[in-house]
Amino acid sequence: MIDLEFVEVFESSILLYKGFIKNGNRYGYGKEFYENKGYYEGFFIDGLRHGQGTLFYHDGTTYSGSFEFDQFSGHGTYIVNQNKYTGNFQNNKFNGLGSYTYANGDIIKGSFINDFLEGYGTFISNDGDTYHGYFKHDMLHGDGKFIFSNGKYFKGHFIENSFHGKGFLQDENGNNYSGNFQFGTFNGKGKYIYQDGRQYTGNWNKNLKHGFGIYEWPDGDIYEGFWYNGKRNGKGIKKKGNIQKEVIYKNNKKISEKIILTPSR
Fold this sequence. Notes:
CATH topology of the largest domain: Histone H3 K4-specific methyltransferase SET7/9 N-terminal domain
Radius of gyration: 32 Å
Largest sheet: 23 strands, antiparallel
């Protein structure tokens, strides 16, 4: 049978301890108050916080859960500045499965390593946006799918919270883009299909048609040529049925055109 003694003592680093001791050390259930006005209430072994307990910091931060030899270890809840983490701890850090709720209501959940969400996880924003995919250091990083609350969605690759690399984006109106992204913008080769049936396939720069591209209308008309900052510029070919015209544009204004192919009779 464990021989415990209930005491109320003062120590240099601890303002006051109330609880049980064994062989001169805090042991079993007790409560200790610190000079910085924080306090701990829970279980001890050999003078160390060990087992279930709650640590209250002087600034309002709290940890409630499992301790191992004075460290957060096992399942617990940590609250600081209205941000809240609930899940597994190891060596005083978030380690293992858990969920972190930010003060603004945003939530990330999945597997944490040394305080950061890493690998596959989920993000839910306070206004209903959701993301399922890969994370690195709490950021969207790797392949995933982001669904906006208005119905817009992106599926593809992320780097540091931005669409980056290959992906597919559909907006809330039904327009969609498939191709290359760079830090959140259409950049490189891609295809944009408008909800009314028009489409553009070609090069992009920062969301603008830029370089060579092919623009098609639902009635079959086609323009093949060069674009600069979203406007037709330079020489191109306009096709309408069997008629082909060579056209020259400057800032989307047609400068000249001539027929180069007509139907054979």
